[in-house]
Design goal:
The complex is a heterodimer of chains A (349) and B (313).
Chain A: E1 2-5, H1 11-35, H2 40-52, H3 55-80, H4 88-106, H5 112-141, H6 145-165, H7 200-217, H8 219-229, H9 231-236, H10 241-268, H11 279-289, H12 294-318, H13 324-344, E2 345-348
Helix pairs in contact in A: 1-13, 2-3, 2-12, 3-7, 3-10, 3-11, 3-12, 4-5, 4-6, 4-10, 4-11, 5-10, 7-8, 7-12, 8-10, 11-12, 11-13, 12-13
Chain B: H1 2-6, H2 11-36, H3 44-60, H4 65-87, H5 94-116, H6 143-147, H7 152-170, H8 172-182, H9 184-189, H10 194-220, H11 232-242, H12 247-270, H13 276-295
Helix pairs in contact in B: 2-7, 2-10, 2-11, 2-12, 3-4, 3-5, 3-10, 3-11, 4-5, 4-10, 7-8, 8-10, 11-12, 11-13, 12-13
The chains are: A mainly alpha (349), B mainly alpha (313).
Chain lengths: 349, 313
């Protein structure tokens, strides 16, 4: 008995892999819900109701999905090129902080659309610059970017803490450490009135479309894929590895930074050190569930957001700790890895 | 200025160094063992979190402290088995599997903690390991408090360094482990099974990581709270590179890091007008600097992160 690579992965298998993975993750998590003395089916129904059961619930879920689409895209473009960007969390925070800083009073008086465009760019730049450091260290000194991006997450969150207790402190926040808010003119308009859902959703969807064009339709996208598949062969074929890796880093870091910027402009207005419930790390799950495809990222982000938003409601209704959401999402990542294996390989006797 | 130098001569600083180093020593040894056999284990952060929780929980539910450590190690080995099964026989990406393990183990630890423990205003506590009190030795000025009045698991960590260094360098088993990390095919030609060796090393390494986590809740502190591992696992992954995959140097690296950490904590109190976050950042930034210094010279195990399939080259 041996396993061999399929010559080509049938469509049906590629599409069903994430569904199989999610089903397996839910089945495994059911054991833990049982341990809490609650019927898992009931818990899952409550979860769905909490995330999709009303117009308000759906808008909350989509609001949560916006940063996940962007951090998921960030991970997808990086992992495609085997640039292990685990620093999405830090890039998210730095993007958020930069937008709050510039958006508070540095660009007062711009027309709202122009201001929002500038701030979008600022958020992207902050994330892109942050990831270009580890990418440069890998190219110049051979330092593994997994460790550097992970460690930078801690450095950035401390830096955010320093800034929001110091120079960027919001004097109106009564001792609660929070940054100055973005100028009201540059808050992202609501997509649906009287909900928190903002036009960041459209920006995230546009980003997914653009990333799809880049990875599927440009030379850069092909070169990045080649660099990830076999760096040596790619270089032999004339791909400049440093240029490709730095390009991927700027795009990936930019997307994660944009996630932070959008979250500040759309939801939180100011920055706190707890504004992200792990958006950067969840981006890894989103990207893997999507098998690194930009279109799949949108769907996977909706799934992860459903679990997170639904788990809060389910926890209130049944008493099952809401940490079950993190368990389900993490298990989905592991089961997806196995599902991907079985869709790309087959067992032959 | 004088004050900040004075700090260097205080016994409490050096006693703190060993205490802070202990979880790192366990963690870096665990990561080193996995990597020497050819498997990167990014599950470390989550495994340490699980070790911290389950070790504490066992004691909270009535077990004695050493049993708590044993339970933590067993839980670590189990999670390690999961990572090993995914990455060794299945050959999945060690990066992604490890990150998944970290997310999973940490989430599971928080979930179980919330499920079993009712948390009031402050997290419940246990009676932790106390510093040893050895007659005469513990009372020697300076050396006594630094070397002979640590909590017992600290000595276990130091012994583990010696044992792992000896096993890796001087025993047939160690040779087989090292060969598995360099060239698994030669191991197979010796009639040994590289797959089993890798699985065993990942399990043993993960057990050590979990002990590092358990030290936090059963000796350094007396309660469990979320985010308490605070990147120590990632620091250990950096320390393995820094140590060039050698246990002795890994011990030195852990001590050096712990020294910086202990020193910055005390400097915060002495140096005024500098935000405390800058001090807290220093250890992370210095780890990155250390990596830059050694990365080019590091002798990475040849077959690290290369899945092994029998008969395939």
């Amino acid at each position: 008995m041996r396993i061999e690579r399929r010559a080509r992965v049938p469509w049906s298998l590629a599409v069903s892999a994430p569904f199989a993975a999610i089903a397996a993750a839910l089945a495994l998590s059911a054991v833990l819900i049982l341990a809490a003395g609650v019927n898992p089916l009931l818990a899952y129904v409550e979860m769905l109701r909490g995330a999709l059961g009303s117009r308000l619930a759906v808008t909350e879920m989509l609001t949560r999905a916006v940063p996940l689409v962007l951090t998921g895209l960030a991970v997808a473009v990086a992992f495609r090129a085997r640039l292990w960007n685990i620093g999405g969390e830090g890039q998210f925070y730095l993007g958020a902080l930069a937008v709050a800083w510039v958006g508070h009073d540095l660009i007062s008086g711009l027309p709202p659309a122009a201001g929002i465009a500038v701030l979008t760019f600022v958020g992207m730049m902050a994330g892109a610059l942050l990831l270009s450091g580890p990418a440069y260290l890998r190219l110049r000194f051979g330092v593994d970017e997994v460790v550097t991006t992970l460690l930078m997450n801690f450095v950035v969150i401390l830096f955010v803490g320093l800034m929001i207790e110091g120079p960027l402190r919001d004097p109106l926040a009564f001792g609660w450490p929070q940054s100055v808010p973005v100028d009201g003119a540059y808050h992202l308009p609501d997509l649906i009135p009287n909900t928190r859902l903002h036009i960041g959703l459209l920006i995230a969807l546009a980003a997914a479309g653009i990333v799809w064009l880049i990875v599927a339709r440009t030379v850069f996208g092909t070169e990045a894929r080649a660099a990830g598949f076999n760096a040596r062969a790619a270089e032999f074929a004339g791909v400049s590895l440093p240029r490709t890796i730095i390009g991927v880093a700027l795009l990936s870091g930019g997307l994660a930074g944009l996630a932070g910027g959008i979250e500040v402009m759309g939801v939180t207005r100011g920055v706190t050190t707890t504004m992200s419930p792990g958006f950067g790390y969840a981006g890894i799950v989103v990207a893997m569930l999507a098998a690194l495809h930009p279109a799949g990222v949108v769907a996977a982000a909706v799934f992860v957001a459903t679990i997170f938003v639904g788990a809060d409601a389910m926890s209130r209704a049944t008493g099952v700790p809401s940490f079950i959401a993190d368990v389900i999402v993490a298990l989905a990542l592991l089961t997806m890895l196995v599902a991907l294996l079985f869709s790309t390989y087959r067992i032959r006797r | 200025m004088i004050e900040s130098l004075d700090l260097l001569f205080s016994a409490s600083l050096w006693a703190a160094v060993l205490r802070i180093a202990t979880p790192l020593i366990f963690g870096v040894l665990g990561a080193l063992l996995c990597e020497r056999a050819g498997v990167l284990n990014l599950g470390i952060e989550g495994i340490m979190t699980m070790g911290a929780m389950i070790g504490w929980l066992s004691v909270f539910l009535g077990a004695d402290l050493w049993t708590g450590l044993l339970v933590a190690a067993a839980a670590g080995a189990l999670i390690g088995l999961l990572h090993a099964l995914l990455t060794v026989p299945l050959g999945l990406s060690q990066h992604v599997s490890g990150l998944g393990i970290t997310l999973f183990a940490a989430a599971l630890a928080y979930y179980l903690y919330r499920l079993i423990v009712t948390v009031g205003e402050s997290p419940p506590t246990i009676e932790p390991f106390r510093p040893l009190d050895i007659p005469i030795l513990s009372d020697v000025p300076f050396l006594g408090p630094v070397l002979f009045a640590q909590a017992a698991p600290t000595y276990l960590a130091l012994i583990s360094v010696a044992v792992i260094a000896y096993v890796l360098a001087r025993t047939p088993l160690g040779l087989a482990i090292r060969m598995t990390g360099e060239n698994p095919h030669t191991v197979e030609s010796q009639g040994l099974d590289p797959t089993l060796i890798r699985i065993g090393c990942v399990m043993a390494g993960s057990a050590l990581m979990a002990l590092g986590g358990a030290f936090l809740t059963t000796a350094a502190f007396n309660s469990f709270f979320p985010e308490m591992v605070q990147g120590r696992g990632w620091i250990c992954i950096a320390l393995v590179v820094f140590s060039s995959w050698r246990p002795g140097k890994a011990l030195l690296g852990a001590l050096l890091f712990a020294f910086l950490d202990a020193y910055q904590l005390r400097l915060q109190a002495v140096v005024e007008g500098v935000p405390y976050q800058l001090f807290l950042m220093a250890p992370y930034l210095l780890s990155i600097v250390a990596l830059i210094l050694v990365a080019r010279r590091a002798r990475v195990p040849e077959a690290l992160m290369t899945p092994y399939r029998r008969g395939e080259r």
